[in-house]
UniProtKB/TrEMBL annotation:
Bilayer topology term: Multi-pass membrane protein
Protein name according to UniProt: UPF0756 membrane protein IV74_GL001978
Pfam family of the protein (one): DUF441
Record-level GO cellular component terms: plasma membrane
Record's keyword terms, sorted: Cell membrane, Membrane, Transmembrane, Transmembrane helix
UniProt organism field: Carnobacterium divergens DSM 20623
Keyword Membrane on entry: yes
Transmembrane segments: 7-36, 56-76, 88-109, 115-148
Length: 155
């Protein structure tokens, strides 16, 4: 019973922090989980969200990234141009690097579930206090940006 009350309190605090920070993604995510908790016998649903939620999120993010291809804004010509510029190569390498790091991260979470709370807390702090965004492909873009700030060919 204590753990159940603690989970409500913890999620409530996260929701308050999200509201104060005006972080829409965190507000929606926390409210969604709180709503699921209100429904009796939803342990299986919460477990499914825990196990598959990251994959669903990555799928939605990937779909949004593919929209410019679907609308014709980006085509093969643009892909070929990426291979012709140093900036394109940095972005390609960062995309590869982030996907490799992410696979190791998923393995870490499976092997050490206690790391999850530290990651969740760190992500919440980064999103709320530093106006960060919790999204994988965006990390690749951020790494690309950082590298481009350092390398001389981008100045």
């Amino acid at each position: 019973m204590r753990a159940l009350l603690e989970s409500w309190l913890f999620l409530g605090i996260i929701l308050i922090i999200a509201l104060i920070a005006k972080n829409q993604s965190l507000i929606i995510a926390t409210a969604f989980i709180l709503l699921i908790k209100l429904i009796p016998q939803t342990d299986k649903l919460l477990e499914m969200v825990q196990l598959k939620g990251i994959n669903w999120g990555v799928t939605i993010i990937t779909a949004s990234i593919l929209v410019p291809i679907a609308t014709g804004q980006i085509g093969f010509k643009d892909l070929l141009e990426a291979f012709k510029s140093p900036v394109g190569w940095v972005a390609i390498l960062c995309g590869i690097g982030v996907s490799l790091l992410s696979s190791k991260g998923v393995g870490l979470l499976s092997a050490s579930p206690e790391v999850t709370i530290a990651l969740v807390f760190g992500t919440i702090m980064g999103v709320v206090l530093l106006k960060g965004v919790a999204a994988g492909p965006v990390i690749a873009a951020g790494l690309t940006y950082c590298i481009l700030q350092i390398l001389p060919f981008t100045k």
